[in-house]
Amino acid sequence: MPLVNYEVRNRIAEIALNHPPVNALTEPMLDELLAALATAAADPLVRAVILRSNVAQRFCAGLNLEAVDGGTSTDLRALVEKLYVRVCDAQRDLGKPSIAVVNGAARGGGMTLAISCDLILAGRSVTFGYPEIDVGLIPAIHYAHLPRIVGRYRAFDLLFTGRSFGADEAAALGLVSRVVDDDRALDQARALAQVLAAKPARVLELGRDAFRRENDTDYRVSVAAAVDNFCAVASTEQAREGVRAFLEKRKADWVLPQRKSEAAHQRTAYEKPTNRRALVRTMPVG
After folding, report:
1. What are phi and psi of 93, to 5 degrees?
2. How far apart are CA 101 and CA 275, in angstroms?
């Protein structure tokens, strides 16, 4: 079964996430998503793109934490680069407008997919959130994106409390384009896509490129830095504890990793030096 479905209907490419139960993102799934975006970009008959979910009441839950826990640091970097950098680049190079239809819960990496699009339509009952901090990770790309949209202080609230929020609050913050009735979200997106498809194609393409350049100044640089920031946090003991606790369905012990780190530091700091140079190397700094 494909993890991402692709079909073209009435000049509109529809890309549907299809990885039950929550559309958790894996590297193969992102590969299929990137391939679908490339196919839409290369097809001159496609005039707009819709990104949606085939899973009821779920848009996307974000990264598959089993992949985060079980992979090497190289594997993790490859996964995050595809989600952050390559999806961003694929959307930039799409050459036609894209619409995210969020008709179910969107969290973490699901938020990343949604904001990569030009327009976001949200069902009235859906919820959003950046819960990464509760598993010892960070939504690093949103440090670059969210303050630009909602302001620094409201962004800090959402990113560091990890709380969920509804479609109405998302609209008030400027995070979504429109809020629509749940059972009409896809139909509304298709109607909007047809409006865009009726515009002069070359003008829309050039205008979209200019719009993105004006509004995404240095954003691409920030996206690349976000990969480094995410991976740096993911390599910590507290991140490993948080991810494992989530997978094991238990409460994370945030203190234990810190104690281990402090104990290792103390062992190094108070190890008896054999010479003056060793003394300099082992003295605690800070």
Report:
1. -90, 5
2. 65
Q: Encode 61-83: b = buried (16+ Cβ within 10 Å), e = exposed.
A: bbbbbebbbeeeeeebbbbbbbb
Phi, psi of 180 (to 5 degrees): -130, 165
Band of residue 70 on the pLDDT scale cut at 50, 70, 90: confident
| Residues 121-139 as b or e (16 or more Cβ within 10 Å = b) | bbbbebbbbbbbeebbbbb
* pLDDT for position 282: 37
Beta-carbon contacts of 266 under 8 Å, excluding residues fewer than 6 positions away, are none
Among residues 49, 28, 27, 84, the alpha carbon closest in space to that of 190 is found at 49
The pTM of this model reads: 0.88
- Check residue 190 and report its DSSP letter: H
H/E run at residue 112: helix 109-115
Q: What are phi and psi of 26, to 5 degrees?
A: -115, 170
